[in-house]
């Protein structure tokens, strides 16, 4: 990951929280984002004394958290109860720098309705199609992941995939950058939205033929992640929510 200042990283994570909320992937105060710092520490979105929800996340809400003790660098900000999600993923997946936990209603509804999140779309949303083609794991327990053993179960369900659906709960999305993790979360939500639309219209969700999937190119980080990030940030700016 490109070296940037701690303050700049705080802004990135605060923007990610606002993007997820503005895009309908989190509701109210539920959800959190983290970024690896090394030496057993991470930047984590915490709840502070003036909590207003993820849409209004400020850089000051992003605190340095000791992943072993679960404490933040300022006791006025409380780390999320589900910090073990971040501790487990960052501890087991060295390629992951950023972890998102969100509660997208469409992802939860699609899973509970039995709508399969398969590569049903291609050129409509290539990152989403490619994500689904690699498989989207589902963790079958709808519990609050507050203990290491529960996080270990989730991690086993997730395997080495960049995302995981948490049944009756939400999702975990990861990336080597904030932009990559946000793009993965939105791609999963797109799959759920399209799947629910097809099922709601009386159709059946089926994957594209293998020959069509083979034609889907990797459009690269600049298009897939950075362009999505700039778009999402422009949406925030239009609503007066940029940082």
Q: Could you explain how this protein is built, in words?
A:
The protein is of the alpha+beta class. The chain has a single domain (6-238), classed as L-fuculose-1-phosphate Aldolase (3-Layer(aba) Sandwich). The chain is 41% helix and 15% strand. The protein is built from 8 helices and 8 strands; from the N terminus they run αββββαβααβαββααα. It has helices at residues 6-22, 83-92, 105-112, 126-133, 148-158, 178-200, 210-213, 220-238; strands spanning 32-38, 41-45, 62-66, 71-72, 98-102, 138-139, 163-166, 170-175. The chain has an 8-stranded mixed beta sheet with strand order 4-3-2-1-5-8-7-6, sandwiched between helices. Strand 3 and strand 4 form a beta hairpin. It is globular, with a radius of gyration of 17 Å.
Low-confidence stretches: none
Q: How many DSSP-defined strands?
A: 8
CATH class: Alpha Beta
- Remind me, CATH topology? L-fuculose-1-phosphate Aldolase
Percent of residues in helices: 40-55%
Write the layout of secondary structure elements.
Layout: H1 6-22, E1 32-38, E2 41-45, E3 62-66, E4 71-72, H2 83-92, E5 98-102, H3 105-112, H4 126-133, E6 138-139, H5 148-158, E7 163-166, E8 170-175, H6 178-200, H7 210-213, H8 220-238
Parallel strand pairs: 6-7
Antiparallel strand pairs: 1-2, 1-5, 2-3, 3-4, 5-8, 7-8
Helix pairs in contact: 1-6, 1-8, 2-5, 3-6, 4-6, 6-8
